[in-house]
Amino acid sequence: MATGRTHRPATRSRGIPEATVARLPLYLRALTALSERSVPTVSSEELATAAGVNSAKLRKDFSYLGSYGTRGVGYDVEYLVYQISRELGLTQDWPVVIVGIGNLGAALANYGGFASRGFRVAALIDADPTMAGKPVAGIPVQHTDELEKIITDNGVSIGVIATPAGAAQQVCDRLVAAGITSILNFAPTVLSVPDGVDVRKVDLSIELQILAFHEQRKAGEEVGTPEEAAGAVPPPPVAPHRAPTGAPGASGAPGAPGADSGRQGPDGDVPAVMPA
After folding, report:
1. Residues of the chain with pLDDT under 70
2. What's this model's pTM, rounded to 2 decimal places?
3. Rounded to whole angstroms, how far apart are CA atoms 185 and 163?
């Protein structure tokens, strides 16, 4: 089987929009589940529901692949699995290196979904010398000193960064210098890469913050704004009552009772009713 450096999928040259490319894995996951249940065909509505998109968008996406289905029958499941897999480049072997074998890196190494989608974990790399040689998911961890040699020897073009944020850019620079052209970044930082290098960022904390925003909005719809619910917003001030202009006792009305603000009662206050 060819390695990831031999050729690349033709999604860009065929003019498939990035938004469509991002949805292809969703369709593939739904189709794979149907295939495992030996479902021969599927309608656009059924597949769209399984993938979490609307059917019109699905049909538009599939038109970029040259697949239009059959009226009254739907789409051939096995053919679509092959077609999308080919478009995503999953009909070949993609060696992957994971750099940073902490809790997250170890979890990624143990994830079985990589191999089933055509991604072979070729090496695990960590800067901690005490980790060298220790097996994780059956693969011995290697030191970062060997990073460039590992990439060259295994023909790797995809790197996964699972290091702390402070080390991510340096690791990224070394990966790119060694020939890596695609990076999946789990570090909570923005990477700077040259043209021709693709980076996909996965930040779980950002996703949780977005969910927190929506939870706050849902709670606010029930009890008002979060500040109001917590009693942090004071009530609006009540404006003092003023008599209408020209009314008896109104301030400023010539000759009217109460017009002379200089006349005070015995306690120094303006009495409610001025003496004649």
Report:
1. 1-14, 223-276
2. 0.69
3. 9
